[in-house]
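During the reporting period the student researcher (J.K.) took over the structure-prediction task from the postdoctoral fellow and processed the backlog of single-chain submissions. One of the processed entries is reproduced below for the supervisory committee.
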Amino acid sequence: MRAAVLRDGRMVYRDDVPEPTPGPGQVLVEVTACGICGSDLHFASHGEQMLAATQSMSGSPSSGTTVDLGADIFMGHEFAAKVLAAGPETETFAPGTPVTSIPVLLAAKGIEPIVYSNTTLGGYAEKMLLSAPLLVPIPNGLDPRHAALTEPMAVGLHAVNKSGITPGETALVLGCGPIGMAIIAALHTSGVENIVAADYSSARRALATTMGAHVALDPALQSPFDAVTPKVVFEAVGAPGIIDDVLRRAPVGTRLVVAGVCMDADTVHPFYAIAKEINIQFVLAYEPAEFTASLRAIAEGHIDVAPLITGEVGLDGVGAAFDELADPDRHCKILVTP
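J.K. obtained the following structure tokens:
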């Protein structure tokens, strides 16, 4: 079976991966499309650092995750697929049914996240296993390439839900990568009347307005805080210094939602947040209900994800796609279609 795997920090093509066999409660599916996520790019570049940070945490469901960086690693968690066959004593949708799922595999040995694994296949493969109880049917007629973006859209929806923003409050989104775009889309569908986006890339600023931002600013010209007075700030950059700069510049009573994943140690001045009574909310992933709500929003046309798809490759082109995604003016979301 064909797949793209991470090996020594690079995505490489294989045509000799054994086809998985579904166990009880599991379903074998054929992958129709899988988005390349920024977290996959992070892991390719900072895998050792990410694993060390994860394993050093207490109280995290993934704190016991082990991955051998010296062996091939399977990835791909933004996927759409078709049902092929069910495991023993497993009731599920009929073969050929288009489905998606939150990226988790229920197995005899426990819960296996479909994110980075030496053994559990992800969406960068011809076929993979999914959990029958977690399958969500893709509505008839919805392009599977669009359904594959349910997962990142759910991340944006979760951030917006956590913010508690109301339609009359002004939102400022810092960073217009895929997650920033998902936040903008969720703000738009939530009826927020003043959405401001900020990014250095002119291409991404233009795309941000397509996704629902009312204004798109270039931080190279002026600080966004000189042009707008936000009530809620969404940080979707994930670079050192951003949080502290927001605390220094934001108005009194601002709510800051941190969605960007910064892999470096950072420094903040608590005094800024204390003096202004700024509320800081860190967010990760989404709830199952937010996943299904995002799929429904895409299927019903409330969110048009088509403009986000800026490239499409086969399994043999994943490595090159990882390299191309480093250029923010060239791509937003590249899909893998096995």
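The committee noted the following: DSSP finds nine helices and 17 strands in the chain.
J.K. will present the remaining backlog at the next meeting.
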